[in-house]
Specification:
The structure holds 2 protein chains of 2 kinds.
Chain A (H helix, E strand, L loop, with lengths): L9 E5 L10 H4 L5 H26 L15 H7 L7 E4 L4 H6 L4 H8 L23 E4 L6 H14 L6 E6 L6 H12 L4 E7 L2 E2 L2 E2 H4 L16 E5 L3 H16 L5 E6 L17 H8 L3 H11 L5 H23 L17
Parallel strand pairs in A: 2-3, 2-4, 4-5, 5-9, 8-9
Antiparallel strand pairs in A: 1-8, 6-7
Helix pairs in contact in A: 2-11, 2-12, 3-9, 5-12, 6-7
Chain B lengths: L7 E3 H15 L3 E5 L15 H9 E3 L4 H13 L3 E5 L10 H8 L2 H4 L9 E6 L14 H5 L5 E3 L4 H13 L4 E6 L6 E3 L13 E4 L4 E5 L3 H14 L4 E5 L2 E3 L3 H11 L2 E8 L4 H10 L12 E5 L8 H7 L3 H13 L3
The chains are: A alpha/beta, B alpha/beta.
Chain lengths: ~350, ~325
């Protein structure tokens, strides 16, 4: 086992893996090119503003269905996707706006799908829960908790059988690790050494159920031990820790050493979906986590480590907000789909 | 007729031959399932395939039906053509999320951005003394799911041609085999051939009534029809071959000709596929030609029991079909 003193930002570790030292973010931030850091900040801001805009559009009565917001959880998708090569794959979950944005989705097309419009990613057939950008390696999200994890195994299997250098990040929530699908898929992926990094976005609640009441382990990474797979739990609100750890897991996956389970511990500020009245947690708890905002933290880090100036940071923030505002305006004007001939779309020719 | 076309092989061998020939032809085709390697599959369908294709493409899995189905869906999304084997159709219940919520919906839900070219093969049916959890015919569930195609061949020739079409199809296809058909023989050409979906076959012509069926009930219907012919009752037997897409044209044509229709299947009558067939006929122009009510003969509304006598009494046998067809032939005269 690696000396725990080097595991800054790591909360729990499973398996005999030689992790390279995980540096404190204040040190690591100086090792990354500024462009990379700016990219991370931009994607986190885009996600935050996208979701705030989503709420606003919902309040204005422009959204037909529900949505699952990841506000407060932006560091996990951005930090992990930052470690991918462009041709790699992701598959994620119903709270997946951040993953989709980080993977490079067109924001206007994404907003169009959110509003159920014909030019949206799924032509208005999928909505917020199913936004995918398959041509860019974003294999989408499933609305069935845990349902995407076995599919990830299949994608990993195809990559391995084709001897592809590409790898896959498979995201799911804390609640889904209680599904049988999680168990079957991680076991198979480990038995076959598939090129996958399993990433648990632990936001502490499976809808209203506190994860500490739904499982008898403190860290979900502990579960990796049952599959003979390394696992690690980290501060999922620290985008650079996520980046460092996932980079190493990606390295294992790419070199044929098999999958890793990474638990990014975070918190969702908003309710599970629009029907949530937050009856299962205290306002104090929510506020406590709002004080650990991953975006504020990252901005502060960039500033104090003097890798970016305040005006540069704010310029990125403002541009992101503008992008989202423009996307919403454009998406509202997009044409609605029409109900004729939908039967023709069910089967591929 | 060449020597080739006279070759007789079993239904089981025909299924294997379809897989082997497609796997030789296309490196993206692979088989995935439980005990399909050295063991050759629970019924021996994949016997010898491990030796030819190796463990990569004859991929044995842990006992994880949902995992198998998910692996098939994921690989199919990547453009491969997995054939997943579910050991008994009953175990499809363990893979339902992947089959129904994922495989079937993915294309439509993502606005046409993907296709899911996979086959789920499973043996169905009673008659082996395997009791309630290893004997079911669950086709109605999958027919009821938009996005999945369902085929259910009744003989070795169709099994090969329909399985080749299933593997080449760009959608999830549930390919239903029948345990009691595995050992039945038919003349099957060695060369590769594909039988298109959505084409029913009139396997015996007759003028007095139409007998609609599929899978194991087709040979039983033919046996009953031969006996009834001795009494002067001419039964037309239609083998549906694929349930979805369904060849409504052949059904309507036959029923319009005979004016009487008996629908026969093994699955329990209530909520069974026969109800759909009855509705298709009732809503069509064939309705005007009906001389008697549409009749269904199907499995009783019970789980399949173990005891041989009880098991036989649970689903239509040749004598039951004979009796029902005879009664229908006399109805409304």
């Amino acid at each position: 086992m690696t000396d725990s003193s080097v595991l800054v930002g790591a909360l729990n570790q499973v398996g005999e893996v030689d992790w390279n030292p995980i540096l404190d973010s204040s040190v690591f931030v100086k090792q990354l090119p500024v462009e990379k850091l700016a990219w991370m900040l931009e994607k986190m801001c885009l996600t935050r503003y996208f979701e705030e805009k989503a709420e606003e559009l919902y309040t204005r009565g422009l959204v037909h269905g529900t949505m699952h917001l990841s506000i407060g959880m932006e560091a996990s998708p951005v930090g992990s996707i930052a470690a991918l090569e462009p041709e790699d794959f992701i598959i994620h979950h119903h709270r997946g706006h951040g993953h989709t944005i980080a993977k490079g989705a067109n924001i206007v097309t994404m907003m169009g799908e959110f509003l159920g419009k014909e030019p949206g990613y799924c032509r208005g057939r999928g909505g917020s829960m199913h936004i995918a950008d398959v041509s860019d390696g974003n294999m989408g999200a499933t609305g069935i908790v845990g349902g995407g994890i076995p599919i990830a195994t299949g994608i990993g299997l195809a990559l391995q059988m084709r001897k592809s250098p590409q790898i896959l990040l498979s995201y799911f929530g804390d609640g889904s690790t209680n599904e049988g699908a999680f168990h079957e898929a991680l076991n198979m992926a480990s038995v076959w050494d598939l090129p996958i990094v399993f990433i648990c976005d632990n936001n502490k609640y499976g809808m209203s159920m506190d994860f500490r009441h739904s499982m008898n382990v403190e860290y979900i990474s502990t579960r990796a031990a049952s599959y003979g797979m390394p696992g690690i739990s980290i501060d999922g609100n620290d985008v650079l820790t996520v980046y460092q750890v996932v980079s190493q897991a990606i390295g294992r996956a790419r070199s044929g050493k098999g999958p890793t389970l990474v638990e990014n511990v975070s918190y969702r500020w908003r309710g599970h979906s629009k029907s949530d009245r937050n009856l299962y947690r205290t306002q104090d708890e929510i506020e406590d986590w709002m004080n650990r905002c991953p975006i504020k933290r990252f901005k502060q880090l960039l500033l104090t480590s003097q890798v970016m100036r305040e005006d540069e940071i704010e310029a990125i923030d403002r541009a992101a907000k503008q992008t989202i505002d423009d996307a919403a305006e454009a998406a509202i004007l997009m044409p609605e789909p029409t109900p004729e001939n939908m039967e023709d779309e069910v089967y591929a020719p | 007729m060449s020597e080739n076309t006279k070759r007789e092989i079993t239904y089981l061998e025909a299924v294997r031959e379809a897989m082997v020939q497609e796997m030789r032809r296309n490196p993206e085709v692979f088989l995935i399932g439980e005990d399909i390697g050295v063991y050759g599959g629970a019924f021996g369908v994949s016997k010898g395939m491990l030796e030819e294709f190796g463990p990569e493409r004859v991929r044995e899995t842990p006992i994880s039906e949902e995992g198998i189905a998910g692996a098939a869906v994921g690989a199919a999304l990547m453009g491969m053509r997995p054939i997943m084997e579910i050991m008994f159709m009953d175990f499809a219940t363990l893979a339902m999320d992947q089959l129904v919520n994922q495989a079937a919906k993915m294309r439509f839900m993502l606005g046409g951005a993907v296709s899911v070219p996979m086959v789920c093969r499973a043996p169905a049916g009673s008659g082996t003394g395997a009791a309630a959890q290893h004997s079911q015919c669950l086709e109605a569930w999958f027919v009821h799911t938009p996005g999945i195609k369902v085929v259910s061949p009744s003989n070795a020739y169709d099994a090969k041609g329909l399985l080749i079409s299933s593997i080449r199809d760009n959608n999830p296809v549930f390919f239903i085999e029948h345990k009691l058909l595995y050992r039945t023989k038919a003349s099957v050409p060695e060369e590769v051939y594909a039988i298109p979906f959505g084409k029913a076959k009139v396997v015996r012509e007759g003028s007095d009534l139409t007998l609609l069926s599929y899978s194991i009930m087709v040979p039983r219907a033919l046996e009953a029809a031969a006996k009834l012919a001795e009494e002067g009752i001419q039964v037309e037997v239609v083998d549906l071959c694929s349930l979805k897409p369904l060849d409504t044209e052949t059904i309507v044509q036959s029923v319009s000709k005979t004016g009487r229709v008996l629908i026969v299947h093994e699955a329990p009558v209530t909520g069974g596929f026969g109800g759909e067939l009855a509705a298709v006929i009732a809503e069509s122009e064939a309705f005007d030609y009906l001389d008697a009510p549409i009749r269904r003969l199907a499995g009783r509304n019970i789980p399949i029991p173990y005891n041989r006598t009880l098991e036989r009494a649970s689903v239509p046998q040749v004598e039951d079909i004979e009796k029902a067809a005879r009664a229908l032939a006399r109805e409304g005269r």
